[in-house]
Amino acid sequence: MFRVTNKMIYDQALYDLRDNMNQIWKWHEQLATGKKINRPSDDSSAMARINTYKSNLSEIEQYRRTIATVTINLKATNSSLGDLRELLQMVKDLIIKIGPMKQEDRQIYAKQLDGIKQSIISIANTKVGDRYLFAGFSGDQEPLDPITGEYKGTSDNIVVEIGKGVFIQSNLPGSDIFSFNFSASTPADAVFSNGLGYNPTTNPNEFDSTFGSPFINFDPDTTYVTNPDQTYSAGPPPSAGYYDYNNSYLNENYIFRAINFLQQAMQVDAAGLTPQQKTEIDKRIDKAYAYFEKLIQKVSQKEADVSLRLLKLSDQDNFLQKLSADNTNYLSDEMAMTPDDYARVNLLIQMKEQSLQSLRKVSSDVMKSSLFDFI
Question: How far is CA 109 from CA 84, 98, 193, 196, in A?
Answer without folding.
Answer: 20, 8, 18, 19
